[in-house]
Amino acid sequence: MKRSDDVNALGTRLLSVVICCYNEAHVLPEFHARLMSAMRKLQIRHEVLYVNDGSNDGSLTIFDELCQTPQVRCLNLSRNFGKESAMAAGIDHAGGEAILFIDADLQDPPELIPLMVEHWLAGCDIVNMQRSDRRGDTAGKRISARLYYRLLGLLVDRYAVPQDVSDFRLIGAAPLQALRAMPERARFMKGMVNWLGFKTIELPYDRVARGAGQSKWGPLALVDLAIEGIVAFSRKPLRWFSLLSASIFVLTLLYIAQQIGTGSLDIHDFILGVGAMLALGVALVGEYIGATLSEVKRRPVYLLSSTFGGFSKRLAAPATRQLGKEEQNG
After folding, report:
1. SS3 track for the chain
2. What would the pLDDT profile of 64-123 be if each residue is shown by its tens digit?
3. Same domain, 176 and 293
4. Which domain holds residue 58?
């Protein structure tokens, strides 16, 4: 009897698999075939939600064809907003009690989805997939990723930032509800999910080479992502600059006192050093002001142009970042 109840309980649960895509037409057919093959092994109900992040390579036609299959839907963003915004769209429109993010480039094997679901059903709130082998990445990307995770680990000390964990993860009901309540516009999903806490597990896997095409993450894009993550989740750079400023101020006073005592006061070198420090500080503070500006403008994280499969013909982006009561009344 208990076995029958367990099966019935599984049949009421719904998993949303969200795939954010930008110009992946060359791999979409193979990816979708492998994805659906893996999904058929699940004992729970599921849906597939593609987020077309402004692709211009013919992906739109492919998505239209894929969405002829039941339980497959697609959101078409009005332009390329970036992966973080595309994931926000997936979170807003997914119908499942849990979400699983996976890329379409075949570096993240869809065949691992049943294992992730198994750990979720066993009680894990968040299932992270951790790369144990990055031979599928270029040498430059491996080095930059290593430096990136070490830097985040140094700057973020209030919660753990697991290394080599990408956006290939399953997020259960409780953390998903918490994510939907977070009002950030300058979004950094890796930091947001780790900040949540909850019962989390990392499962190692081998990351293979891309199925086709080139990575959309160039060196400048990775640097930009790193800065966004640091600004969003760490105040340490500001604290370090404050301590540095205080130290230089004290040293300057000591130097002036010593030079006055010897009668050879010449502070030109210190003026140059202090000027350079102030220029660095202004740039640092500017990054935080820029992040604040993104929040106070309150622009939508994304906009939708059309949808396929089970949506209305035209669906506007929901107001997921609601105004506070004070703002509504004021």
Report:
1. CHHHHHHHHHHCCEEEEEEEECCCCCCHHHHHHHHHHHHCCCCCEEEEEEEECCCCCCHHHHHHHHCCCCCEEEEEECCCCCHHHHHHHHHHHCCCCEEEECCCCCCCCHHHHHHHHHHHHCCCCEEEEEEEECCCCCHHHHHHHHHHHHHHHHHCCCCCCCCCEEEEEEECHHHHHHHHCCCCCCCCHHHHHHHHCCCEEEEEEECCCCCCCCCCCCHHHHHHHHHHHHHHHCCHHHHHHHHHHHHHHHHHHHHHHHHHHHCCCCCHHHHHHHHHHHHHHHHHHHHHHHHHHHHHHCCCCCCEEEEECCCCCCCCCCCCCCCCHHHHHC
2. 889 988 889 999 998 998 888 899 899 989 989 999 999 998 888 999 999 999 999 999
3. no
4. 7-217+301-308
